[in-house]
Every structure is written in structure tokens, then in C-alpha cells.
Task: inverse folding
């Protein structure tokens, strides 16, 4: 596996709930390598989502550093973050987060619209992507006309359409049945490995960690253990 | 995001909530229409003043009087031509002055004026009238209205134009009989008529030694106009007749009448025609600064406009208030849209929309509402304006509504700007929404 795309240094996130302080992420240091499938595993409330959101620049850490391709995410302003997300990052959420009034095709092209890609090119790319996730025949359906699995496929197509360097997925299968869960995990890891894209998956499901190159086990906002399943390739740090 | 995508997306979002969009647009329609109609009534008012004044003469003509002495018989003279500022310097209203007026920028024509009260004889009938002598080449430019025939032109010498209000009568009848009989109808154009200073003309008191001057009538002026009771004649002819009159007076009365003769040739009045109403006040001021007295109908127009300024402002304010209400409607609609679309905004941000994209999207939607409302509002005002004019005509009212093109285009632009301004606050709010919180809201 390659170099480190993301370096996390002693990151903390403290939520202030009235008088009470919640240490959602409590001093985590971690490197994520280019092209790996990294799984953040832990019980509910262990701080997985918070960590993911910090890495993806959706939230600011209370302290610590998050360095993505030598750039400090925690120092970026809103404009820089928007640009960063547009260039390097794709997202898959548990609740799909599709725009209900747009068709599958339009949902998938949305990131390209913001990137100013011409109509013809973005429609071609969207169609390719939809075909890749097995929804070539559903391009003009609205989300409510599709099953949960199909909606998640659309959102996966949307996450990958921009060929991002890293795709973040927060419980991507949380709303799906077992069979669909495996289909989805097969799909998402296959897409990522095809272009050597990095995948960071948050889950509480131990079984899904089978797909991971590395498993980061979280507990109470701290890294409990890291399990490297590609030991053979060795760890440099 | 490209402009095309932006417009497309904004339009789709608006069409998603058809009824709400319609109602918001309706507010702008009412606002725009009321502002346009109110302003148009104000404009119509000013135009009707101008029309009323046009009956009194041309709005582009300035009457200039010598700073010393009387002259001028217009009622507005006292207020319009405040005395000369430079009392010490004696300026003369002579040929040199006429030339200097011609040099002023914006002046189209200049003519000295001399008036004389004379008798006209046509066949057995006579009439008395005020004769206005002017440079015949300028008559058309000076705005004299012609009813039949033509105005005087540069080549005319023994030609006159007679006002329709000049009443001919039989001099043999006494005053009482004249009042009770219908004024005779006569066709004047092409007639050769007599002009004389002998007041006994046509009666047995006529002075045989006075030879009448022969003129041909080339045109008539409307009876109800400013010059309805006047006769227009080339200036040179008026001067000839005046000279003859003076000589005759000297002969018959011995002395008298000579004191005017002492001065070098000076005019009582000079008319100055300006190329555009807009320049009249400027030219008039320049002439006043030269030391002359000057007045024009635009003085009246300005005064009339001034007296109705308050009314026009109130009308405009009524329109403005409805547009403000419409603007609040737009803001309200957009704020509601943000609440509804919080999640959507969050998703867009997460998948790569820039702050600018989000802001522009909301501004564009608000601008669309303003623009659509402006277009329809202008259409509604067009119809309303026609209706106002129709009703006003039915009631014989002077109140009319007039919408110039700039008002149409300006209103559409204004409504759009109002839309953008109303959308500014909501757009800013949408922009500031945290992507994460937005995405978490259900
Ligand atoms: N916005 C927030 N405000 C306050 N507390 C939060 C917020 N988000 C998460 N937390 C708290 O931080 C802890 C970690 O949450 P989270 O990262 O969502 O856990 P996980 O994704 O592992 O279930 C939890 O105790 C949660 O209640
Ligand atoms: Mg979570």
C-alpha cells in the first residue's frame, strides 16, 4: 500500500452540552494510506461518525491536526473546504441523502454541475457510472420510485463520479438487509480498488470489516486497537 | 456552477412550489403595477399641463423684453421676468441684441416683435385686431398654430395670417345692432384685404387722405388659441405702417408722437425659439444674465409641476409601499424555502457546492420572482393605464396616465433588483448553514 493520504495527529473533539462536556473524539492519531480500505469499527457512540466528519472537513476539531495531501483541513475556511470536498472527496451516507425531486441521473450529475462540467460530458459520465452500479435502466427514476438498495447505489455512483481520491462512507449499509449489504460492500470496494481510491468506512458491524485492509477499533473516542490485515505488505510507521 | 445550470435549477425549484411561487409573484405584480400606474398618473399630469400651456403658445419660446420700459402683455410677466440684475448697465433690445441671442447654444430662431392695433377691411366688412409683426421666416418655428392655409414664410411681403377670433362686422351698424346680429361668416384665405390705421375706415368719417395697405390672407389661426385675436404680418410691413401712421399723426395734429423717434432702432419685444423644452430655462437664464427681462411658458409649467409635486410624491409612495410589501413577501417565501430545503442545502454543500453556488441559487430564485412579477406587473399596468385614460375620458377629466418606455423597462429592472435584495438575507442564511447539521435534520 502506498503513502499516507491523511495524517491525523492527536485530534480531539469536545461537544459542550450545557454544562456537560462530551469528549466525542479524545486524542486520536492515525494515518490513512492511499488506496486502502480503512474500517472505523466500534460500538454506537464510540465516536466513529465524529472522527469521520472531522477527517472529511465537515466539522472542526477542538484541537489537533488533520493533514490531507499536506494540507491542513482544520485550518481551512468554508470556501476552501468546499473546494477541497469538490476535488478530493466523495461521500456515502447511511440515509442515502439523495435530492428527492431529482432523477437518479440528475442526482449523480450534481457534483459535476457544481464543478462546471459541460452538460453532454456529465450526462455521459453519469450514465457510465449508473451502469457501473447496475442502474443503467433506472436513470430517469426519482428516489421514491426505487428500493433502499437502489437508492444507495445511486448515492455510491454520485460519490464516485468525480473520481475522488478518498470516499467516506458512514454506515453505508445501516438501512439495508443482509443480502443487499454484501452486494453494496462488494460494489463499493470494487469501485474503489479499480482506480486505487481510498475508502474510509464507518461501521458497527464486525462482519463488514472483512472487506477492510485495516480495521481501526474505536472505543470512547479513542483508538483501542488497529488490526492490519495486509500484514505481509508491512507497516512503515 | 454555470449560469445556465443556475437558472435551470432556480426555475425548477420555483416550479416545485407552484402555488407559493404564484402568490409571491402576485405580490410583486401588484407592487409593480401600482408603482407604475401611480407614477404614470404623475407623468400624465405633467403632460396635460404641458398640453394646456401649449394652447397659450409654444413652450419652446422665450419672450424677451427691454429692461427699461413696459412691453409685454402676458399675465405671467410680473413673476416670470424679475427685473434686470444689473441695473447700472443699460442694455438695448436692438439688432445687436437679436444677433447675440442667435449665438446662444440651443437657440433655433430669433425674431423681433412689434405689435400695432389696426383696422382690417374686407369688402363691406371691417375688423380691428392686434397686429404682430415678426420675421416671417420664423413664424412656423415660433409655434403659431395654423388652422387653414399656411404660415408666413421668408419670401412673404404683403401677406398676413389672421386669427379665427378676429370678428368682422359691418361698420355701418351701430354697436347695439352689431351685438344682436350673428357675426358674418367670411372666407378669408386668398382674399385681398385692406389694412389701415384710420379708425373711420368704411364709414363716412373715413379720412380720404389715408391710403389703405393691401395684403393677401395666406392662412388663418384657430380662434381659441393664444393668437386667436391677432393678425400676423411681416415685421417690415408693421414698421412701414407705423411710420406712415406717425407721419399722418404729425400732419393732422401738428406736434406729438415724436419721443419714440429719438432712440436708435429698439424693439419692445424679441421672441427666442429654443430647440428643446429642456433647454428653455437655461437659455432664459442666460438672456436674463445679459440684463434683459425674459419669460416663457415653461415658468408656468415649472410652477404647475411644483404645486402638484406633493401629490405626485404621495402617489409614488403608495406604489412604493405595495412594492415593499411584495419585497417582504419574497423574503418570507425564501426563508420558508430554506427551512424546507435545509437538508437539500446540506447535501449540496457536502457533494461540492461552493458557498457562492448556494448564495447565487437563492438570489437567482428571488430575482426570478421579482423579474416575473415585474414583467406581468408592467403588462397589468399597461391595461390599467388604458382603463384609467378611458374612464378619465368618459368623465371629461384631465387626469390621464402616460407610461413612457423607460418606465416599463425601469420597473422590470427595479422589480428584479427588489427580488435580489429581498433574497439577500435568506441567501446569506442558506450559505451559513452548517452542512453537517443540515444533513442531520430530517
Ligand atoms: N453534535 C453533537 N453534539 C453533542 N454531542 C454529540 C454530537 N455529535 C455526537 N455527539 C456525541 O459524541 C459521541 C460520539 O458520537 P458519534 O460520533 O455519533 O458516535 P458513533 O458514530 O460512533 O455512533 C456520542 O456520545 C454522541 O452523543
Ligand atoms: Mg455514527
Result:
Amino acid at each position: 500500500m502506498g503513502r499516507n493520504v491523511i495524517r491525523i495527529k492527536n485530534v480531539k473533539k469536545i461537544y459542550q452540552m450545557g454544562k456537560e462536556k462530551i469528549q466525542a473524539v479524545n486524542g486520536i492519531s492515525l494515518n490513512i494510506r492511499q488506496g486502502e480500505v480503512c474500517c472505523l469499527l466500534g460500538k454506537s457512540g464510540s465516536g466513529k461518525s465524529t472522527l469521520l466528519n472531522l477527517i472529511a472537513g465537515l466539522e472542526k476539531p477542538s484541537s489537533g491536526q488533520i493533514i490531507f495531501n499536506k494540507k491542513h483541513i482544520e485550518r481551512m475556511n468554508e470556501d476552501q473546504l468546499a473546494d477541497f470536498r469538490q476535488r478530493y472527496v466523495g461521500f456515502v451516507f447511511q440515509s442515502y441523502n439523495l435530492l428527492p425531486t431529482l432523477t437518479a441521473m440528475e442526482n449523480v450529475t450534481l457534483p459535476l454541475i457544481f464543478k462546471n462540467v459541460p452538460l453532454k460530458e456529465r450526462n455521459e459520465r453519469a450514465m457510465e457510472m449508473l451502469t457501473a452500479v447496475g442502474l443503467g435502466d433506472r436513470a430517469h427514476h426519482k428516489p421514491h420510485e426505487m428500493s433502499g438498495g437502489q437508492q444507495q447505489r445511486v448515492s455510491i455512483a454520485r460519490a464516485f463520479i468525480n473520481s475522488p481520491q478518498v470516499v467516506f462512507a458512514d454506515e453505508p449499509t445501516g438501512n439495508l438487509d443482509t443480502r443487499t449489504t454484501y452486494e453494496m460492500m462488494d460494489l463499493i470496494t470494487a469501485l474503489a480498488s479499480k482506480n486505487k481510491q481510498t475508502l474510509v468506512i464507518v461501521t458497527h458491524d464486525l462482519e463488514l470489516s472483512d472487506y477492510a485492509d485495516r480495521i481501526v477499533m474505536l472505543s470512547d473516542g479513542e483508538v483501542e486497537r488497529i488490526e492490519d490485515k495486509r500484514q505481509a505488505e508491512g507497516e512503515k510507521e | 456552477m454555470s449560469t445556465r445550470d443556475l437558472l435551470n435549477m432556480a426555475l425548477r425549484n420555483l416550479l416545485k412550489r407552484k402555488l407559493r411561487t404564484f402568490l409571491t409573484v402576485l405580490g410583486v405584480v401588484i407592487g409593480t403595477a401600482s408603482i407604475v400606474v401611480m407614477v404614470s398618473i404623475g407623468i400624465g399630469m405633467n403632460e396635460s399641463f404641458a398640453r394646456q400651456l401649449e394652447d397659450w403658445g409654444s413652450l419652446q419660446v422665450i419672450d424677451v423684453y427691454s429692461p427699461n420700459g413696459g412691453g409685454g402683455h402676458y399675465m405671467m410677466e410680473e413673476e416670470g421676468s424679475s427685473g434686470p440684475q444689473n441695473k447700472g448697465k443699460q442694455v438695448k433690445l436692438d439688432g445687436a441684441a437679436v444677433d447675440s441671442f442667435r449665438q446662444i447654444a440651443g437657440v433655433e430662431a430669433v425674431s423681433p416683435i412689434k405689435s400695432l392695433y389696426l383696422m382690417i377691411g374686407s369688402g363691406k366688412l371691417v375688423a380691428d385686431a392686434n397686429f404682430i409683426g415678426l420675421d416671417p421666416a420664423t413664424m412656423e418655428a415660433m409655434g403659431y398654430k395654423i388652422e387653414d392655409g399656411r404660415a408666413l414664410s421668408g419670401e412673404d411681403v404683403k401677406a398676413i395670417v389672421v386669427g379665427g377670433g378676429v370678428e368682422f362686422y359691418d361698420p355701418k351698424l351701430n354697436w347695439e345692432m352689431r351685438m344682436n346680429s350673428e357675426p358674418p361668416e367670411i372666407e378669408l384665405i386668398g382674399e385681398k384685404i385692406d389694412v389701415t390705421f384710420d379708425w373711420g375706415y368704411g364709414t363716412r368719417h373715413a379720412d380720404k387722405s389715408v391710403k389703405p395697405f393691401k395684403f393677401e390672407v395666406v392662412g388663418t389661426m384657430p380662434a381659441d388659441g393664444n393668437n386667436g385675436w391677432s393678425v400676423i404680418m411681416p415685421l417690415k410691413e408693421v414698421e412701414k405702417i407705423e411710420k406712415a401712421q406717425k407721419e399722418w399723426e404729425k400732419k393732422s395734429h401738428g406736434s406729438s408722437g415724436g419721443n419714440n423717434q429719438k432712440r436708435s432702432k429698439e424693439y419692445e419685444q424679441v421672441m427666442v425659439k429654443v430647440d428643446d423644452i429642456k433647454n428653455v430655462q437655461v437659455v432664459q437664464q442666460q438672456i436674463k444674465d445679459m440684463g434683459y427681462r425674459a419669460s416663457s411658458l415653461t415658468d408656468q409649467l415649472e410652477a404647475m409641476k411644483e404645486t402638484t409635486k406633493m401629490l405626485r410624491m404621495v402617489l409614488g409612495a403608495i406604489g412604493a409601499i405595495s412594492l415593499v410589501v411584495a419585497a417582504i413577501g419574497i423574503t418570507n417565501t425564501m426563508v420558508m424555502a430554506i427551512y424546507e430545503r435545509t437538508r437539500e442545502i446540506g447535501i449540496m454543500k457536502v457533494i461540492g457546492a461552493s458557498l457562492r453556488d448556494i448564495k447565487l441559487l437563492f438570489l437567482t430564485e428571488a430575482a426570478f420572482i421579482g423579474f416575473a412579477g415585474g414583467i406581468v406587473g408592467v403588462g397589468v399596468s399597461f391595461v390599467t393605464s388604458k382603463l384609467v385614460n378611458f374612464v378619465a375620458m368618459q368623465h371629461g377629466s384631465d387626469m390621464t396616465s402616460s407610461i413612457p418606455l423607460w418606465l416599463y423597462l425601469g420597473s422590470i429592472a427595479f422589480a428584479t433588483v427588489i427580488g435580489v435584495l429581498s433574497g439577500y438575507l435568506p441567501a446569506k442564511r442558506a450559505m451559513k448553514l452548517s452542512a453537517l447539521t443540515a444533513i442531520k435534520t430530517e
Summary: Chain B touches chain A through 22 residues (CB under 8 Å). The radius of gyration of chain B is 34 Å. Residues 355-394 of chain B form the longest helix (40 residues).
